[in-house]
Predict the 3D structure of the following.
Amino acid sequence: MKRGAGRRPTRGARRAKPAVEKLWGSRFSESAHPTAERFTSSLAFDRRLWPHDITGSVAWARALFRAGLLTAAERDTIVKGLEAVRAELERGAFPFRPELEDIHTNVERRLQELVGEVGGKLHTGRSRNDQIALDERLYLKDVLAHVGEGLRRVQETLVARAAESVDTPLPGYTHLQRAQPIVLAHHLLAYVFMLQRDRGRFEDGGARADVLPLGAAALAGTAFPIDREALAQDLGFAAAAPNSLDAVSDRDYVLEFLAAAAIAGMHLSRLAADLTLWATAEFGFVEFADAFATGSSIMPQKKNPDVAELIRGKSGRLYGNLLAVLTTLKGLPLAYNSDMQEDKEPLFDSVDTLAAILAVLPPLLASLTFRADRMRRAAGEHFSTATDLADYLVRKGLPFREAHAIVGRIVRHALDEGKTLEDLTLAELRRFSPLIDGDVKDAITVEASLRARAVTGGTAPAAVRRALALARTLVARA
Ligand code: ARG
C-alpha cells in the first residue's frame, strides 16, 4: 500500500458520512457543515423550476444521443425515467432532499435511483451553470405568457369602464390642483396605454431571452459534438448563445424582467393612488365595493381601500428586487459565480407580486362605483374653463399672452367678489376686454371645453371614442 493512500482515509473517516453523498463529493474528505449546507442550498426556492429542469434534461438526453454519446435505448431509458420523475413531482410524491443543494441535483439523483447507472450519463458535457441559465429562461417564457395575459385582462376591464364613461366629465389635475375638465374615460384609457407599453417591454425582454445557453457547459463550451442549433430548435429557442462565457454569466433576462415589472408596478401604483385619493371624502369620486375594502378595528365607521393601498405599496418590493439583482451582478468577474444564485428569490418575488396585483385588479376595477354627479360638479368648479376663456379671446384675434393676462385679471376680480366665472355678467366681463361678446357663455361651459379638445389624444368625447377604438384593437391582440 502506498504511503499517501494509507493516510487519507483516516481523515475522511472522521465523519460517519463522507461527502460522497454529494454530486461532487469524491474530491472531499469531510462532509459539509450543516450550517454551510443550509446556507448554500437553493432547493427551497429553485424547486419551482422543476418542470423546466426536466424539459431541459429530456432535450439534453436527445442531444447526447444525436452526438453519439447515448444509444437509442439509453436515451429512451433516461427520457422515460425523467418522465417518471416529472410524474412524481406533479403528484407531490417526489422525495425532495435538501442536502442535495438544488433542484438540478435532486432531479438527477432521483433519475439515477429510478433507472440505475445509465442515469449517470445524463450530465455528460453539461454543467449546472448552463443548466440553471436554461431553466430560468424556460421559466421566464412561461411567466411572460402569464404576465402578458394578466396585463391584457386589466386593460380589458379599464376599456370596459372607459366605454361607460366617455361623456362623464371629471376634473383633470396638474400639481394636484384642479386644472381643466377631462372625461373619466380619458383618465382610464391613460392607464390602458401605459400597460400597453408594459406589455411591449415584457415582450422585448422575452425576445432577447430567447437564446439557448445549454452547451456552454461550465464556461468554455461542451467538449462533445453537440448540435446546439438542433438543441435550440428542440427547446423552442430562436438561436444558440454565441459565446459560452456570456451564456453562463448573463442574467440580463432576469434584470429586464425585473425592470419591466418595476415599471408596470409603478403604473399600477399610480392607478391605485388615483383610486385611493378619489375614494376620500374630500374627492368622493369613487366608492369601492365592500368586497374590495376593509374596516377598522377601532373606528366603526371606517371603510379603507386596503387592496388599492397594497397595490400602491407593492411597487416598493418590485423596485427593490431589481436593485438587489443589479447590485449582486455588479463587479462579478466572468464567468459563473455563486453570487448569481441570489437572482432567484427576487425574480420569483417579483413574478408572484405582479401576478397577485394582476389577479386582484380586474375584479376590483369592475366593482368600482363612480360618482358621476360629484365628478361633473367638480369639473366645472375653480375656474376650470379659464383657459377656454383665453382661447376664446385668441379666436377673436388676441395674442395668447395678452389673453392669458386678461383672464388672469378676470379671475382675480371674481375671487375678490367671491364669484365663479359663470356668475360674472357680460357687462362685467367686457370691462376687461371689448372683444368679449354674448357668445362667451357658451364657450366656457365644461362641455364646450371638452368638445374643443378634439385633437388626436385629446379629451373631447369624439377623440376619446377614437382612442377607445384604438385601445380595443391593441388589447384584443394577444
Ligand atoms: N444553484 C445555482 C444557481 O442558482 C445553480 C448553478 C450552480 N453551479 C455551481 N457551480 N454551483 O445559480
About this structure: The domain at 378-476 is CATH 1.10.40.30 (Ribonucleotide Reductase Protein R1; domain 1). The CA atoms of residues 17 and 31 lie 7 Å apart. The chain is about 60% helix and 5% strand.
